[in-house]
Amino acid sequence: MEVKIQTIPLVVRDKAKALEFYTEKIGFDKKTDATNNGYRYVTVGPKGQDLELLLWEVGSFDAGGQSKNWKPASAPPVLMKVEDCRAMFAELKSKGVVFTQEPEENPWSTSATFSDPDGNLFSIHQFRQWSA
Q1: Where are the alpha helices (DSSP H) in the chain?
Q2: Structure confidence by residue, pLDDT tens digits, 14-67
Q3: Can you say whether the dihedral through the CA atoms of 81, 84, 86, 90 is positive or negative?
Q4: What is the sign, positive or negative, of the torsion defined by CA atoms of 23, 93, 14, 54?
Q5: Smallest Cα–Cα separation from 78: which of 51, 106, 107?
Q6: pLDDT at residue 132, as a whole number
């Protein structure tokens, strides 16, 4: 059986502000924007990838009640692989993205971490080549 992860919920306080942040500052594509029975379903994701982040606004309709305890900034960082961590850091910082960790060298990568307006964390990694 083949399985592919397509959508990951990301809890935000304001869906419109989050959409603006991810499309205008981070450069993600808006993948879906549909309204049904008053609920606006919005996803964003990296260009050229199937992966989507569902912008789940706190207090959104949830028939099963499973999301009542979901909060922004309560998950570990989402890891993103980049070609050049320092260049990506400089580009995002110039657009006003707030970093909680500037580029840092470690044995497996150069990484930096930023937060969205709701405190959700994203870590950009330029992974090193490993030799056996």
Answers
A1: 15-20, 85-94
A2: 999 999 999 999 999 999 999 988 889 999 999 999 999 999 998 877 767 777
A3: negative
A4: positive
A5: 51
A6: 56
In order of their start, the domains of the chain are 7-69 (3.10.180.10), 78-127 (3.10.180.10)
Number of C-beta neighbours around residue 39 at 10 A = 11
pLDDT band with cut points at 50, 70 and 90 for residue 2:
confident
Q: CA angle at residue 30 from 69 to 34, to 5 degrees?
A: 70
| Rounded Cα–Cα distance for residues 72 and 64 (Å) | 19
pTM, to two decimals: 0.86
Task: Find, among 19, 44, 21, 48, the residue nearest to 32 by Cα.
Answer: 44
* Residue among 79, 88, 28, 89 at smallest CA distance from 55: 28
